[in-house]
Amino acid sequence: MLLGGLLLSAYYYLNDNMLLSISFLLVGFISPITLSANLYGAYLLGKKDFKRSSLYSMVHNTTPVVAIILTLLLTDSLVAIIVVYLLSGVAVSLSLYRQTLRAYPLQNKDDPKLTSYSGHLSAMSIIAIIVSNLDKILIFHYLGAAPLAIYAFAIAPVEQLQGGKKILSTLILPKLSGRSFEELQKSAPRKAILLTVYALILASLWIIFAPYFYKFFFPQYLDSVFYSQIYSFTLLAVSGTMFNETLVAHQKIRELYFHRTIMPFIQLVLFFIMLPLFGLMGLIVSHSILKVLSALLGYYFVKHPLKERIIDSALS
Question: Are 92 and 154 found together in one domain?
């Protein structure tokens, strides 16, 4: 992130865009510190201190918002807004990090296996992170700015509903780590079915209330309603949470590499086929297909973990 920020800052500086140059320079230097300090959240969940985790999460989310609101009351300078957002974010993250260490001091135990595993998790996520931002670039390239705005307003409310999936992932990981993989192979599918039912109910409610939501909050983006209703089926991704977190909790590195490599590849293929042929609807449908495929692939790897000899022959 530091290297990317410096390169982008230099690029925009050479192209006489000081706003973006300064912005990327700040992002490059500050974001790595913020992201590292935010590990306090996972640490608290690992300690099963959910009360402190919830309180700190509330402080972490509200502080930058309050800082930006106060800044907007004083100035309309984009540079000032960006600086305040980044500095308030890193300040609150470092503060909560220190508070967490006071509550639960580290025992300074070296764990080479854990360090290696965290490196694998980072490496296997690179492709997915890059591909996850490709849809907006392709829309702008093929369709232009107006469809991009419609798309952004169509997916934004549903993405907020996806927040429950992220919370679920962080809450169940410590519990899954304490249970055997064989036990989870039996129980995970049943719980995934319950999550699927929950996702279908949530998607159905959004389909019903979406027109009223847009009429009240975003009347200028009523064209986004139908796209948003279709996109709500991506909420089914929550059903794959049990399988993904099971693989993570039990350090199934091979299965995770395959899953997190295959899915971005399928995503690329679908995007480049569906968007030119069917426009925004093609992209929306692609997202729904991808969520279902991801859950099914996670289920397969949990029920049928890869064998050593299969991996060796594939790599050779």
Answer: no
